[in-house]
Amino acid sequence: MENKKGFTPENGNQGSPMNENPGSKRRFIIYIVILIALIVVSFIDFGGGANEINWNKFENEMLLTNDVEKVVVVNRERADVYLKPESLDKFSGAARGSGIFSGAAPAFYFTIGDVESFEAKLAEAQKDMPKEQRVVVEYKTEHDYLGSIISWIFPIILILVLWWFVFNRMSGGSGGGQIFSIGKSRAQVFDK
Question: What dotted CATH number matches 51-145?
């Protein structure tokens, strides 16, 4: 006993629209899982970077004890603190190792309000130090190209996936799209 859709008591409902293309569904689910995994990984902090400190800790515990090798101001908003190699063991939580592309990595960082006030505070803190012990300040601009690309591409990909999903649902089924068959009965007559 078999109907147009391929129903037999032995093989179940093989011809249902849900089972017409199981490979397509699996592929779609895999893409969604990969997308979710990429989003989750982008928000996870793996603890490999520098730890945040405040100005008081920088000045009192590092700068005045002559443990700082240099300070790099990044994008006019963050100061990366590089400690002298012999001073790394004095501070718990100091990042060790090197950066992927830049050589040595900063041990700590802190946020600065603006560059002028940071320079004034640093000059005031170092006014009694000999010139050869004063900290070198460098300025650097970093660009987040990956973040910029993702912020433009992610919404486009999301729209395309939703568009594909809607049109895939509309094209499946018999006699038109499934999206327009809301409330219609799928009852079939079986002859005995």
Answer: 3.40.1690.20
Q: Where in the chain are the domains?
A: 1-44, 51-145
Name the stretches of the chain with pLDDT < 70.
Answer: 1-22, 45-48, 96-103, 171-185, 192
- Residue 183 backbone zone (phi > 0: left; psi -120 to 50: alpha; other: beta): left
- Taking Cα atoms as reference points, which of 96, 116, 115, 114 lies closest to residue 106? 96
> Two tokens at 88?
């790394």
Tens of pLDDT, residues 92-146: 777 766 544 445 788 899 999 899 999 999 999 999 999 999 998 999 999 888 8
- The strand pairing partners of 120, in sequence order, are none
Phi, psi of 119 (to 5 degrees): -65, -40
